[in-house]
Design goal:
This protein is α+β, with helices and mostly antiparallel strands. It folds into two domains: 243 residues, FAD/NAD(P)-binding domain, CATH 3.50.50.60; 147 residues, no CATH class. The protein has twelve helices and 22 strands. The strands form six sheets. The chain has a seven-stranded antiparallel sheet. The chain has a five-stranded parallel sheet with strand order 7-2-1-11-21, with helices on both faces. It has a three-stranded antiparallel sheet with strand order 3-6-5. Helix 1 runs parallel beside helix 12. The longest helix has 16 residues.
């Protein structure tokens, strides 16, 4: 039996502590906040999208950074395992659009209570309001963690699992402590950047502020080459865009030169340009009056003036005066409404952090450091991140499981 200390009481840390203790280790979970799972409280808009009801292959396909590194971990603890574990505590789950899994109660607090029951069932000692200040290492080769210095005193240990999260939402405790500990052990930390983030645009969309676009397609082009395209929802706010489509594409451009990036919004993805052109011809023949009024059947009211202007058409024009060339330009505008990102929201406002401890310095099967004899990592502190939909929490639970069963 080993004495294991887990740093961080998020999903990765709670998973690691549970499986460590279940394996018979004396396990202590240190959390610097006053309670466990503080970031989980706000995930899924307070409902906690704890995984995605899909197979391992689909999870890996939704990982943006270093998907191959996670293959063993997700195989070892899959979404099905997550559902079984949480359900074993008595918490009922449900699956919604996009295979997103939530507690039936729609309360993230119920998920945290479920984890607390799991930790209690295997006698994990939880110490909250305890901040780890420093890890002390031996002078041996390879180095070894000997003890932890905290604001509540010193802790001796046989093994340590770092599960401190990234830099997103620092008010929940994600302040990058784990990066510092990793660097002290000699690890490389890939520069953390915002992932799953809203973005500021060069264009002014303030006329549509607060409008939620549904069933639109957002595509991303880098130097003219399409690198992303997805159907879904997008929220317009005064300075830019947010919502599921936006945060997903942000993870693909967070390290790019944004001057090389063009976003393309398709308001009518179900219609080809030819079908859309025929639709306009029919609408124009059946309706008389201003173009801006007739287009209300086709486009959100807030976007009509913008679309007409981009198509180079007189905003006061009557449909009877619309030329073939004007109509074709309008079709192209509706199918390819270009937007240009100016910047992503700061990392503090991002849903997750991209970057972290370099994966080549971690054993993918055990999450054990290749540089320190008794050091392990789990969750967002590692250089892995995924699209929205429950995948990031699944990664946290899977890597926590790998570390927990390996200590």
């Amino acid at each position: 039996m080993s004495k294991v200390i887990v740093i961080g009481g998020g999903p990765a840390g709670m998973s690691a502590a549970y499986f460590s203790a279940k394996n018979g280790n004396e396990t202590i979970l240190l959390e610097k906040n006053e309670k466990l799972g503080k970031k989980l409280y706000i995930t899924g808009k307070g409902r906690c999208n704890l995984t995605n009801d899909c197979d391992v292959k689909t999870v890996i396909e939704n990982v943006v950074s270093n998907p191959k590194f996670l293959y063993s971990a997700v195989n070892g603890f899959s979404p099905e395992n997550t559902k079984e574990l949480i359900s074993s505590t008595g918490l009922e789950l449900k699956t919604e659009r996009g295979n997103r899994v939530f507690p039936k109660s729609d309360k993230s607090s119920d998920v945290i209570k479920a984890f607390a029951r799991l930790l209690s069932s295997v006698n994990v000692k939880v110490i909250t309001s305890c901040r780890v200040l420093k890890l002390e290492f031996s002078n041996t080769e390879p180095i070894k963690v000997q003890k932890l210095l905290t604001d509540k005193g010193e802790f001796l240990c046989d093994k340590v699992i770092i599960a401190t999260g990234g830099l997103s939402y620092p008010t929940t405790g994600s302040t990058g402590d784990g990066y510092m500990f990793a660097k002290e052990a000699g690890h490389t930390v890939i520069k953390p950047v915002a992932a799953l983030s809203a973005m500021v645009l060069k264009e002014d969309l303030s006329a549509a502020n607060g409008f939620l676009l549904k069933n639109v397609t957002l595509s991303v082009y880098k130097n003219g080459k399409k690198v992303f395209s997805e159907l879904g929802e997008m929220l317009i706010y005064k300075g830019g865009i947010d919502g599921p489509l936006t945060v997903s594409c942000s993870s693909l451009i967070n390290r790019e030169n944004l001057d090389e990036i063009v976003l393309s919004l398709d308001f009518k993805p179900a219609l080809s340009e030819e079908k859309l052109n025929n639709r306009l011809l029919r609408d124009f023949s059946e309706n008389k009056g201003k173009l801006s009024v007739v287009l209300r059947k086709l486009l959100p009211y807030e976007f009509i003036p913008m679309a007409i202007k981009r198509a180079g058409i007189n905003p006061e024009i009557q449909v009877s005066a619309v030329k073939d060339e004007d109509r074709k330009n309008l079709v192209k505008t509706i199918k390819n409404f270009e937007l240009h990102p100016k910047k992503l929201f700061p990392i503090e406002a991002a849903i997750v952090t991209a970057g972290g401890v370099k994966v080549s310095e971690i054993d993918p099967k055990t999450m054990k450091s290749k540089l320190a004899e008794n050091l392990y990592f789990a969750g967002e502190v590692i250089d892995v991140d995924a699209f929205t939909g429950g995948f990031n929490i699944q990664i946290a639970l899977s890597t926590g499981h790998s570390a927990g069963i390996s200590v």
